[in-house]
Amino acid sequence: MGKEFEKMQVISLHKDFDKLQQVYGDKNLDSIYGAGCIDNPNVMFVFMNPTSKNIASSKEWKGIKAQWLGTKNIWKLFDSIGLIDNNIYQKIMTKKPSNWDYEFAENLYENITQNKLYITNLGKCTQIDAKPLSNKVFMDYLKLLEMEIDIIKPKIIITFGNQVSSIILNQTILVSQCRKKHYLKNINNHNYKVYPVYYPVGQGMRNIALAKEDLIQIMKENDIVIKI
Fold first, then answer.
1. pLDDT-derived band of residue 228, with 50, 70 and 90 as boundaries?
2. Residue 212 placed within a domain
3. Mean per-residue pLDDT for 21-31?
């Protein structure tokens, strides 16, 4: 992996993420990095941390190491609010994880890039399962995430879930009490609008309708075109 993904990933940070994988992740798995539009995207989506369900976490995988590859649930949400092209979504829904190949994964993220989106995790440390991580682990990734933000300079940032939102904003955040509300995060004298949203996968699937409702409203408020 290398230069072929420079147009969609912040390659300069990957070595630092890989070092933390050895500290906090499963040593038999690889880090999963942010990917998409790295030149002023409309939206940067920040999730928690990857698991082995992402097929790119395997050391055998030589394609792009990006979020949610080989999975379906998050793409259901993205398709429902017009954030990815429907023809790609339909292919995702028909593929088993073993049927994903390097070309399809890259085509998916080329579409994400064209739609001016960027998808990342606060923690890039891949775990075997979705067991919760401590605040300390995420705090050790925070400075790198701030560097990631500073490099790509998104128009707005969506943080998913209470834990991720609280750590990024350095205050206690309860998504249920601040729906559709934004906070300002200053990085190198630039204020970024950060919107906490319900976590929409795993146990958070029960809140996916609320996440969808909030995302649609947030996009409209920021004049971001979605295809619904």
1. low
2. no
3. 97
Evaluate whether residue 147 is within a structural domain.
Answer: yes
- What domain range includes position 108? 3-154
The answer to whether residue 23 sits within a structural domain is yes
Amino acid letter for position 75: W
Q: Which residue has the tokens 């940070």?
A: 13
Of 34 and 200, the structure prediction assigns the larger pLDDT to 34
Question: Do the Cβ atoms of 161 and 48 come closer than 8 Å?
Answer: yes
Q: Is the pLDDT of residue 1 over 50?
A: no
Render the burial of 190-202: b for 16+ CB within 10 Å, e for the rest: eebbbbbbbbbbe
Residue 34 is part of a domain; what is its CATH number?
A: 3.40.470
68, pLDDT greater than 60: yes
Task: Report yes or no on 38 lying in a domain.
Answer: yes
Name the average pLDDT for the chain.
Answer: 94
Total number of domains constituting the chain? 1
Q: Map tokens 């969808």 to a residue.
A: 212
Which tens digits make up the pLDDT trace of 113-127? 999 999 999 999 999
The four Cα atoms 161, 16, 151, 163 give a dihedral, to 10 degrees, of 10
CA distance 60 to 182: 40
Question: What is the pLDDT averaged over residues 147-158?
Answer: 98
